[in-house]
């Protein structure tokens, strides 16, 4: 960085840098002339009442979470409904101690308006329990459509008492939007941002003062590389990430048939009676059906052109595929979930064996059907 004497943001204490806008401590070169010198994240909170998203690695994130268990605090854990099992911090409970956890599920606007929200809430509670997270409430919201925030603010008020509020989540789950709502409703930004430095981390948190002397604590987003969205080029996120209500695509398949999702993933129906598979993926995702015995050859010849996105060039930067074999139990209502891609609802009553091919490291699980 140009001015070697400038080491730390006077707002949050982070080490300053001018190269990587998405990472902690970024500020534009010209902002070095300002007094006091503060990072862009603090500048936006202080001047515009707006948080922006920054990231930190897994080890630092877990160290930071461990500190929350030593505080008397309310924890808001925000997850992405479209990537629920990929954005949930499954080890959260062992870090936050007895502090109450509000689980905020964002992007409910992606589901049909006819969705039974009580049933969805019960599903979320069961999944959280499965991951070992004790929650005091589930709040269904849409940051994009501004839905569900009144109830969220009420519940934060109910549980906050005389406590700080920590907001935690993975990258791109809507954390900044949530914090901005909290700032607007609770914070008096005339007061200074405060430093929150923890040993062993590059840095971590911005404490946003509330009007009662407590703080909203904005934690950086954790980067989970098991999410397909973290592995692909920025240009391909528009195909993966839905921006409007999902239009489920239903395929009646015989065993020995395959579905390609662009060149991001592939599903083989290996064994079972003829049955339907409902794909809940972004409306922009191209799906190509073929015979299983032709699938390898088709991929070899057409990945990156007929099977796209990503393009051949961008495909080269993604890990090679690995195969997951899954057994769908007879009579079960089951989703095959692929983190960052969406999920496939298996509708057969007879059970099935399927293979999922995805870039190595991407999370693939079966779960009770969401819809």
TrEMBL record:
InterPro entries per the UniProt record, alphabetical: G_CP_dom (IPR030378), GTP-bd (IPR006073), GTP-bd_ribosome_bgen_YqeH (IPR019988), Mito_lipid_metab_GTPase (IPR050896), NOA1/YqeH-like_C (IPR048422), P-loop_NTPase (IPR027417)
Domain CP-type G: 58-225
Molecular-function GO terms, alphabetical: GTP binding
SUPFAM superfamilies in the cross-refs: P-loop containing nucleoside triphosphate hydrolases (SSF52540)
Annotated source species: Paenibacillus agilis
Gene3D superfamilies: P-loop containing nucleotide triphosphate hydrolases (3.40.50.300)
Pfam families in UniProt: MMR_HSR1, YqeH-like_C
PANTHER family per UniProt: GENETIC INTERACTOR OF PROHIBITINS 3, MITOCHONDRIAL (PTHR46434)
Listed transmembrane segments: none
Protein name, entry field: Ribosome biogenesis GTPase YqeH
């Amino acid at each position: 960085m140009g001015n070697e004497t400038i080491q730390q943001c006077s707002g949050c204490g982070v080490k300053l840098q001018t190269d990587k806008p998405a990472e902690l401590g970024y500020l534009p070169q010209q902002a070095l002339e300002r007094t006091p010198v503060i990072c862009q994240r603090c500048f936006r909170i202080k001047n515009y009442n707006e948080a922006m998203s920054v990231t930190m690695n897994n080890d630092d994130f877990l160290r930071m979470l461990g500190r929350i268990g030593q505080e008397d605090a309310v924890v808001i854990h925000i997850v992405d409904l479209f990537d629920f099992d990929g954005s949930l911090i499954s080890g959260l409970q062992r870090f936050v101690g007895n502090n109450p956890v509000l689980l905020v599920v964002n992007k409910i606007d992606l589901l049909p308006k006819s969705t039974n929200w009580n049933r969805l809430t019960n599903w979320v509670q069961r999944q959280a329990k499965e991951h070992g997270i004790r929650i005091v409430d589930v709040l269904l919201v849409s940051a994009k459509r501004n839905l569900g925030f009144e109830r969220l603010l009420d519940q934060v008020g109910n549980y906050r008492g005389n406590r700080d509020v920590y907001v935690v989540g993975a990258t791109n789950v809507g954390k900044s939007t949530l914090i901005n709502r909290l700032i607007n409703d609770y914070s008096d930004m005339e007061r200074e941002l405060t430093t929150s430095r923890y040993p062993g981390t590059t840095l971590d948190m911005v404490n946003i003062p509330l009007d009662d002397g407590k703080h909203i604590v904005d934690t950086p987003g954790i980067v989970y590389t098991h999410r397909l969205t973290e592995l692909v080029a920025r240009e391909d996120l528009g195909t993966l990430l839905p921006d409007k209500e999902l239009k489920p695509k239903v395929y009646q398949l015989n065993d020995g048939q395959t579905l390609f999702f662009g060149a991001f993933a592939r599903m083989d129906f290996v064994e079972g009676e003829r049955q339907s598979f409902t794909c809940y993926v972004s409306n922009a995702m191209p799906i190509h059906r073929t015979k299983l015995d032709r699938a390898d050859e088709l991929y070899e010849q057409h990945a990156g052109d007929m099977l796209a996105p990503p393009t051949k060039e961008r495909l080269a930067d993604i890990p090679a595929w690995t195969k997951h074999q899954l057994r769908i139990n007879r009579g079960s209502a089951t989703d095959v979930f692929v983190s960052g891609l969406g999920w496939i609802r298996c509708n057969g009553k007879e059970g099935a064996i399927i293979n999922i091919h995805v870039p190595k490291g991407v999370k693939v699980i079966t779960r009770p059907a969401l819809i």
